[in-house]
Amino acid sequence: MKKNDYHHGNLKEEFLKIAFEFIHKEDVDKLTLKVLSDATGTSRSAIYRHFSSKDALMEEIIRQGFEEFDRVTSPMLRDQKTPLVDRFYNTSKVYIEWAKENPNLYRLLFGRKYAYIREEILSIKEETCDAFGALKCTVEEGQEKGILKKDDSLKQSVIIWASLHGLASLIIDGFMDVAELSDELVDDMFQSLLAGCISNKVKIISTIPFVKGLLEPKG
Amino acid sequence: MKKNDYHHGNLKEEFLKIAFEFIHKEDVDKLTLKVLSDATGTSRSAIYRHFSSKDALMEEIIRQGFEEFDRVTSPMLRDQKTPLVDRFYNTSKVYIEWAKENPNLYRLLFGRKYAYIREEILSIKEETCDAFGALKCTVEEGQEKGILKKDDSLKQSVIIWASLHGLASLIIDGFMDVAELSDELVDDMFQSLLAGCISNKVKIISTIPFVKGLLEPKG
DNA sequence: TTTGTATGTAAACAATGTTAACATAAGGGA
DNA sequence: TCCCTTATGTTAACATTGTTTACATACAAA
């Protein structure tokens, strides 16, 4: 919505929107300032009136990315109505699914390139990456309820996160042809994590057939 | 060893050596053609007499990188003198250790940026990345011996690889401050993988105290 | 109306990978 | 020895990056 030919009026928002949509489709490396200026019909340097640098724009994108990621994963972990084990399972599924649907954004958030931005965001604003916090809370809840083995909840959370992150990375970074196996792989990985973390002190309930199958002792 | 001031004689090898050493210390993104020309005392375009492009040079580096990686991991997996479970454990340790010592090279080999080169290398020359093949063989051996659950060996191998890859990535990409926890994390992760893959049909031997501890049933 | 501020443009930079035209050395026949 | 080909290196120039500087335009408040 331009006010006139010279001033756009909402160019900053437009830059962010275009950049965010671009990353949904294409590799982060291909997002150049030229792409943004062409898409908005502005000059190459217009962006510097709204962001101090390209990285400053990327920081906003990463911030938005984490919000989107959290929106998908955190509520699922925190949903008290769902049995705890099922929350882990559903989250695993959704985690991998999200990474597959948003490979470029996933790499942007969790990759190395903008690690310093991520660290800044995550250290200043705890709530921005809610997902890991939610995972840790859920692990602690599981330990208190006797579902998971008593252990360092940070370590246990990292193990879970690392497993999912590794699987997601293998799939989206094209290391081995495993993309079409991904559904089974998530199940297998969940089974492995469950076997490693679960305690046998209490009876565990689940409403998901696959998870129920894992809880019943086999021959 | 220059033949004279004009022709070097072994410039190609020199480029590769310098590039390889550079990546041991600094980020791949910082390896520019200027770095190479300055280090060799040649002009910026001299490299094009020996490589068709920068990517062609990177391909050589990646090839060498896989050889180095395989040299560290494969023999350990294939060493028939070591109990099978210990081979997995030792490999896990060495895998994470190698990634920590060679973060830039690790990212170069397993990251996204040069995925198409990796795919080319791994598809043409099976032996180049021996490590995954060795892992799969060892998994199959474990299944045959009744140590691991009978399952799709590819899937089981991917689960193991993904777990290690995820942990390595979290550590070297600076996601959360887990670097100083890494030793414990590898142990925990191995425990989880073991719990997920292990069968209870045969008595399993190990000479590693930590692993023995995992095999003994706890209260 | 004037004046300051916000927001846009154009032109230029340096750094990057790359190419084309030219220069130099080495080696193999005649 | 001389000549020609080939291999190897240099210089100059390109387009593409992100970025800065000087200038231009619109708006808004005094």
What gross morphology of chain A would you assign?
A: elongated
Count of DSSP H/I helices of chain A:
10
Order of helices and strands of chain A: HHHHHHHHHH
Classify the fold: give the CATH topology of the largest domain in chain A: Tetracycline Repressor, domain 2
The CATH architecture of the largest domain in chain A can be given as Orthogonal Bundle
Strand residue percentage of chain A: under 5%
Number of strands of chain A: 0
Q: Mean pLDDT of chain A, rounded to whole units?
A: 91
Determine the structural class of chain A based on helices, strands and strand pairing: mainly alpha
* The first-level CATH class name of the largest domain in chain A: Mainly Alpha
The number of distinct structural domains of chain A comes to: 2
Q: What integer value in Å does the Rg of chain A equal? A: 21 Å
Ends apart, CA distance between termini of chain A:
67 Å
Oligomeric state of this protein: homodimer
According to CATH, the homologous superfamily of the largest domain in chain A is Tetracycline Repressor, domain 2
Largest sheet of chain A: none
Which stretches of chain A of 5+ consecutive residues score pLDDT under 50?
Answer: none
User: How much helicity do the residues of chain A have?
Assistant: 55-70%
Which two protein chains have the largest interface (Cβ within 8 Å of the partner's Cβ), and how many residues from each? A-B, 43 and 43 residues
